[in-house]
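Here is the promised in-class demo. Please do not try to memorize the tokens; focus on the logic of going from shape to residues.
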């Protein structure tokens, strides 16, 4: 019989939040896929498509494995912490995480190049697809090495700490963690530098045209600045929280107050859900396509991209500020 405790409540909370994020990603998947295929659309949709597919992997693991593990206080597919299936699922999680590492960098540098320097030549559909194919291969190789080659330490879903953990072996260096820290730090630093530069560019552009605007137009532009900043911020904030919490909480709390460790799981869930919710809240193209679709991601009456929904690339290239979606 399931006993209602703080741990089970947190487990159900992880399940609900992850499921909602998964649902949001599934809703936006179809329109983003259609826009990614359209030559008239920005290549940002190609990047977003890979991000959403990767987020779905992470949220599936969180919804249907991590949350049940916490609720029922078991590894489900094995009695031991390093049983084969839990280790394999940990490898899947790391595979998704490593793709996310590169996605953070690609997304940030793409927006930086387009908004700050109006450079549209590098992130073509072909180049972007090649980058992500190489990323998938590299992520698969690194996750295999982490879980099955290094002597220490496997990455697992650990219900004891309500999130994720390394299977630390006494007297053996955690090579897995040491190899992850530089990649995580690089992704955060690149994102911070790029998004900070973008915000300054937007503010500078706003000041140069503010003298010719009415008060209402200026208020609208200031509101857009805020939206841009929040989008930039949300892309990398919870990603950074997740990997920083994973490494600092064991030092801060040790074996006590383990409930705080659930923040690691929530950070990854929010990071994996942010892309979809930003689309559902602020991207008018996505909202219009979803509103025309009777069955959302599973089918619908709108199977084509209407001319009124498209933004020719030539028009995009003339724009000083590109609406940023992730």
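The designed amino acids, position by position:
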């Amino acid at each position: 019989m399931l006993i209602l405790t703080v741990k089970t409540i947190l487990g159900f909370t992880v399940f609900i939040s992850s499921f909602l994020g998964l649902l949001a990603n599934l809703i936006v998947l179809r329109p983003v896929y259609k826009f990614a295929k359209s030559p008239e659309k920005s290549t940002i949709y190609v990047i977003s498509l890979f991000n959403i597919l990767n987020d779905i992997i992470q949220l599936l693991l969180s919804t249907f494995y991590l949350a049940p593990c916490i609720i029922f206080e078991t590894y489900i597919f094995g009695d031991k912490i390093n049983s084969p299936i839990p280790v394999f699922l940990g490898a899947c999680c790391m595979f998704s995480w490593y793709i996310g590492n590169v996605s953070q960098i690609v997304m940030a540098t793409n927006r930086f190049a387009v908004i700050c320097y109006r450079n549209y030549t590098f992130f073509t559909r072909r180049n972007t697809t090649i980058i992500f194919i190489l990323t998938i291969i590299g992520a698969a190789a690194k996750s295999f090495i982490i879980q099955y080659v290094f002597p220490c330490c496997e990455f697992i879903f650990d219900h004891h700490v309500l999130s994720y953990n390394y299977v630390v072996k006494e007297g053996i260096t955690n090579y897995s963690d040491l190899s992850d820290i530089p990649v995580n730090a690089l992704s955060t630093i690149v994102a911070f530098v790029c998004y900070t530069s973008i915000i300054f560019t937007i503010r500078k552009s706003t000041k140069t045209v503010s003298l010719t605007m009415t008060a209402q137009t200026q208020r609208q532009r200031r509101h857009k600045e805020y939206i841009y900043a929040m989008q930039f911020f949300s892309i990398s904030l919870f990603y950074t929280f997740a990997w920083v919490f994973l490494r600092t909480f064991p030092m801060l709390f040790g074996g006590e107050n383990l409930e705080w460790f659930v923040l690691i799981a929530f950070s990854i869930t929010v990071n994996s859900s942010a892309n979809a919710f930003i689309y559902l809240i602020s991207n008018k193209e996505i909202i219009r396509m979803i509103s025309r679709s009777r069955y959302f991601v599973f089918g619908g009456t709108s199977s084509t991209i209407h001319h009124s929904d498209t933004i020719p690339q030539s028009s995009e290239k003339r724009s000083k500020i590109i609406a940023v979606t992730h």
